[in-house]
Amino acid sequence: MLAIALALGAGLGWGASDFLGGLKSRSRPVPSVLLISQATALVLLTITTAVRGVGPPDPAFLVQAAVAGLGETVGIAALYRGLAVGTMSIVAPVAAAAPLIPLLAGLVAGQVPGPLQFAGLVLTALGLVIASRRPATGTGDRPLTSILYGLLAALGFGTFFLSMHNAGQADTGWALLTARLTTVIVIASVVVLTRHHVTVRRSDLPVLASIGVLIVAADAQYAVASMLGPVSVAAVLGSLHTVVTIVLARIVLKERLTRPQMIGMGVVLAGVLALSLT
User: CA 20 to 30 Å from 197, out of 59, 85, 121, 267?
Assistant: First the structure.
């Protein structure tokens, strides 16, 4: 139960950070939002690691953490880009397939879920795909482009789920720090190469800092959850961040929920209930 609670907490944190990041990206350039929020997370993790006073683990685990950070960066970039140039109703559901990577890895490693757990995983994953769908605009749709960006996002997030689980086996703190350092280096490199001028108002800083804090909390909860229970379960429940973002948009921005979204959320809740009973 603790693993399930932590994975759900990760989904809640990621969903809230996605919502705040998307909200700020409407008025500020995405690279600026990403760099400042991710840098905040890096500073927080650096302080935490220094206070703990624990030395770094074997380099092999740090490499896994770096791969996790790179995967998360690729996932975010592909998702944002896909939503911008592709068809949202295609990109988001395809990206929601990310948990398949740790699920398949778990099956290869011999982690075969029981009947009830398997049903919960299927229902939750199916609900995520349904809830992520948006009505197609009917104009300018680019199915192949949308599918490719969605698959790249799924590959990136799935790689993060699996690699963070592997890296956390040695030390969660160092895994989180290394992953975040990798993310910041990649984003900063893009900012420099594209000559992007980072500009934000002072009033934006509290929200951007909050995004960084939420990311750290979510990543930490997922890392621990994936060690306490099957990584496939942690990844599927962590992927509920999509639903959390949709709900926050409904509450805060008064965005209308479509019937498929409401059905998808119901299927997700049924899946989570099944998982909680295992």
Answer: 85
